[in-house]
C-alpha cells in the first residue's frame, strides 16, 4: 500500500493527490447518510493520468471509487468505512474540448459541471437540455454514470439520449476512445450505452461527446392548481395533444411539498391559493406570442372543464425562474426539515393516481401520521415519493426504525403496478438489496457476467449497484 501511495504522490503531484488533512468533502455524501473513510483522494488532470492511476491500483489490488460532483443520492460515489478505497475525483478534468456547431455536438471532459456544459452550448446559440436542481455541483461524468434525468426528459430524453460518444478508462487502465459524434453506428454491441448508468462499476468515464439542440424561440412557464391526480392525467393528455413536442416539462408538487418550501426556504411561496396539487408546465414555442397563446388556450380549457381550479402564467423570465425555484427547492427544504425515507420511482403515468392513493392509505394504516412528500417529473411517470416522520418523531429514529417497512410497502406497490424502484438516482449502496429482490434472476446473471468480463478483479466501485 505504501508503494502505491508513494507512486501516486509522485505521479499526480501536490495538486492532484490528497492523503492527509480534511478529506470529508470526498468522503461524505450530499445527504450525510454514508460517511466513509478514503485511503486517499486522486485528482488526475488528464485521461492519461486517470489511466496511470487505474493501472497502479489494479497492480496493487486497490479498489477505486470514481467521483464527480458528489451530489448522488444513493451513496454510490463515496468510499466505504474501511479506509482501503481510493477516491478518484474527476473534478480537475473540466475542459470543454470542442464545440461542433455544424454537427450539433459538444465534447467535454467528464469533470465539467453541468452548468458549464449548458453555458458552452448557450454561448454557441445551442441548447444542452439536461437540467436538474444539482446542476451547479454535479458533473457530466456523474450525470452519465447515473443516466441522470431531470426536468426536460419529457421532450429531450435523459442523459443517455443526450450522449453520442464516450472516452473511458477501463478497469485495466486502458483507454477506450469512443468519442464519436455519429448519430448512427450499428457496428455491434453498444459499449457507450453499457457505461451509461453503470455507476462507476465498469470503468471511469473521462470525456463525452454530447448531443445539442437548437434553442427554442421562446420558453413559457405556468403553474396550475388542482385537487386530484386524475385531473392531472387529463391535463397531461390535453397538453400533449395541444403542444406535442412543444411540451418540455410537466412537474408535480403536493401541497405538503410546497408547504415545506414555504417553511424552510422563505421567502419562496407559490403565488396560487393552496390546492392539494400544483403542476409546473413548461412549453417551448417559436415565438413568445405563440407560446403565450398556446398556454392560455390550454389552461383556459382546463379551467372551463374544471380540471384545474387556478393558474398563473409567468410574464417574465424572472417570474419563470421563481416558479422553477419552487420546484427545485423541494429537495433542499426536505433536507433542512430532517432525514426522510426517499423513493425515486417510475410508473406508467396512468397508474400514478392509484399508486398515490393506495400507498398513502397503506402507510397511514401502518404508521399513522407519517407524511409523504410527493413531487416529481409527472410527465415521465417519475415520482419522488418520500416519507417524513410523523410530527414529533425524531427523523433519524424514524429512518432507522421504519425504513425497511416503508420501502417494502412502497416498492411492493411499485412492482405490482409494473414500475421501477429507480427512475433516476440509481442503485448505489442504498438499493442494492432491493435490486436483488426485484430484478429478475436472468437480468442479474447477465449484469454479473458483464461485470466479471470487464472488471474481473472487482476493483471498480465494489459494493455498489450489484448485490453480493
Ligand atoms: P457523483 O455523485 O459524484 O457520483 C454518482 C455515481 O456516479 C457514483 O456511483 C460514482 O462512482 C459515479 N461516477 C461519477 N463520476 C464518474 C465518472 N466520471 N466515471 C464513472 N463513474 C462516475 N438526479 C437526477 O437524475 N435527476 C434529478 O432531477 C436530480 N435532482 C437532484 C437534486 C439535488 C438537490 C441533488 C443533491 C441531487 C439530484 N440528483 C438528481 C442526483 C444527482 O445529482 C445525479 O445523480 C448526478 O447525475 C450525479 O452527478 P455527480 O457528478 O454529482 O456524481
Automatic annotation (TrEMBL):
<dbReference type="InterPro" id="IPR016167">
    <property type="entry name" value="FAD-bd_PCMH_sub1"/>
</dbReference>
<keyword id="KW-0285">Flavoprotein</keyword>
<dbReference type="InterPro" id="IPR051264">
    <property type="entry name" value="FAD-oxidored/transferase_4"/>
</dbReference>
<comment type="similarity">
    <text>Belongs to the FAD-binding oxidoreductase/transferase type 4 family.</text>
</comment>
<dbReference type="InterPro" id="IPR016171">
    <property type="entry name" value="Vanillyl_alc_oxidase_C-sub2"/>
</dbReference>
<keyword id="KW-0274">FAD</keyword>
<dbReference type="InterPro" id="IPR016164">
    <property type="entry name" value="FAD-linked_Oxase-like_C"/>
</dbReference>
<feature type="domain" description="FAD-binding PCMH-type">
    <location>
        <begin position="34"/>
        <end position="215"/>
    </location>
</feature>
<dbReference type="InterPro" id="IPR016169">
    <property type="entry name" value="FAD-bd_PCMH_sub2"/>
</dbReference>
<dbReference type="Pfam" id="PF02913">
    <property type="entry name" value="FAD-oxidase_C"/>
</dbReference>
<dbReference type="Pfam" id="PF01565">
    <property type="entry name" value="FAD_binding_4"/>
</dbReference>
<dbReference type="InterPro" id="IPR006094">
    <property type="entry name" value="Oxid_FAD_bind_N"/>
</dbReference>
<protein>
    <submittedName>
        <fullName>FAD-binding oxidoreductase</fullName>
    </submittedName>
</protein>
<dbReference type="InterPro" id="IPR016166">
    <property type="entry name" value="FAD-bd_PCMH"/>
</dbReference>
<dbReference type="InterPro" id="IPR036318">
    <property type="entry name" value="FAD-bd_PCMH-like_sf"/>
</dbReference>
<dbReference type="InterPro" id="IPR004113">
    <property type="entry name" value="FAD-bd_oxidored_4_C"/>
</dbReference>
Amino acid at each position: 500500500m505504501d508503494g502505491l501511495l508513494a507512486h501516486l504522490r509522485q505521479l499526480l503531484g501536490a495538486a492532484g493527490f490528497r492523503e492527509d488533512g480534511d478529506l470529508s468533502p470526498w468522503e461524505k455524501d450530499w445527504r450525510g447518510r454514508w460517511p466513509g473513510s478514503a485511503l486517499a483522494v486522486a485528482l488526475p488532470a488528464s485521461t492519461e493520468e486517470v489511466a496511470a492511476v487505474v493501472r497502479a491500483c489494479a497492480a496493487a489490488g486497490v479498489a477505486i471509487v470514481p467521483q464527480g460532483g458528489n451530489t448522488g443520492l444513493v451513496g454510490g460515489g463515496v468510499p466505504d468505512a474501511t479506509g482501503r478505497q481510493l477516491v478518484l475525483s474527476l473534478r480537475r478534468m473540466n475542459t470543454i474540448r470542442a464545440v461542433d456547431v455544424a454537427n450539433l455536438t459538444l465534447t467535454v471532459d467528464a469533470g465539467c459541471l453541468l452548468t458549464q456544459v449548458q453555458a458552452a452550448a448557450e454561448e454557441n446559440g445551442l441548447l444542452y437540455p439536461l437540467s436538474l436542481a444539482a446542476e451547479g455541483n454535479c458533473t457530466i461524468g456523474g450525470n452519465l454514470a447515473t443516466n441522470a434525468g431531470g426536468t426536460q426528459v419529457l421532450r429531450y430524453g435523459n442523459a443517455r439520449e443526450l450522449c453520442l460518444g464516450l472516452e473511458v478508462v477501463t478497469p485495466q487502465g486502458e483507454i477506450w476512445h469512443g468519442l464519436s459524434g455519429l448519430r448512427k453506428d450499428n457496428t455491434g454491441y453498444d459499449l457507450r450505452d453499457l457505461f451509461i448508468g453503470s455507476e462507476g462499476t465498469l470503468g471511469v468515464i473521462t470525456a463525452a461527446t454530447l448531443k445539442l439542440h437548437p434553442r427554442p424561440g421562446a420558453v413559457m412557464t405556468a403553474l396550475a392548481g388542482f385537487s386530484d391526480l386524475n385531473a392531472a392525467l387529463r391535463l397531461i393528455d390535453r397538453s400533449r395533444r395541444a403542444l406535442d413536442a412543444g411540451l418540455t416539462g410537466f412537474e408535480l408538487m403536493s401541497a405538503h411539498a410546497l408547504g415545506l418550501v414555504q417553511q424552510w426556504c422563505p421567502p419562496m411561496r407559490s403565488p396560487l391559493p393552496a390546492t392539494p396539487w400544483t403542476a409546473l408546465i413548461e412549453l417551448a414555442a417559436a415565438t413568445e406570442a405563440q407560446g403565450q397563446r398556446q398556454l392560455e388556450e390550454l389552461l383556459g380549457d382546463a379551467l372551463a372543464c374544471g380540471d384545474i381550479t387556478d393558474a398563473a402564467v409567468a410574464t417574465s423570465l424572472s417570474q419563470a425562474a421563481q416558479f422553477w425555484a419552487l420546484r427545485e427547492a423541494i429537495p433542499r427544504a426536505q433536507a433542512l426539515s430532517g432525514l426522510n425515507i426517499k423513493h425515486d420511482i417510475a410508473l406508467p403515468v396512468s397508474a400514478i393516481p392509484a399508486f398515490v392513493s393506495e400507498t398513502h392509505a397503506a402507510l397511514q394504516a401502518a404508521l399513522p401520521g407519517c407524511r409523504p412528500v410527493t413531487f416529481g417529473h409527472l410527465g415521465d411517470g417519475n415520482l419522488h415519493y418520500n416519507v417524513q416522520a410523523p410530527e414529533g418523531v425524531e427523523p433519524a429514529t424514524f429512518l432507522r426504525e421504519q425504513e425497511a417497512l416503508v420501502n417494502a410497502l412502497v416498492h411492493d406497490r411499485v412492482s405490482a403496478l409494473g414500475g421501477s424502484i429507480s427512475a433516476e438516482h440509481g442503485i448505489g449502496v442504498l438499493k442494492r438489496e432491493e435490486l436483488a429482490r426485484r430484478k429478475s434472476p436472468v437480468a442479474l446473471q447477465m449484469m454479473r457476467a458483464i461485470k466479471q468480463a470487464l472488471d474481473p478483479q472487482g476493483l471498480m466501485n465494489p459494493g455498489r449497484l450489484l448485490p453480493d
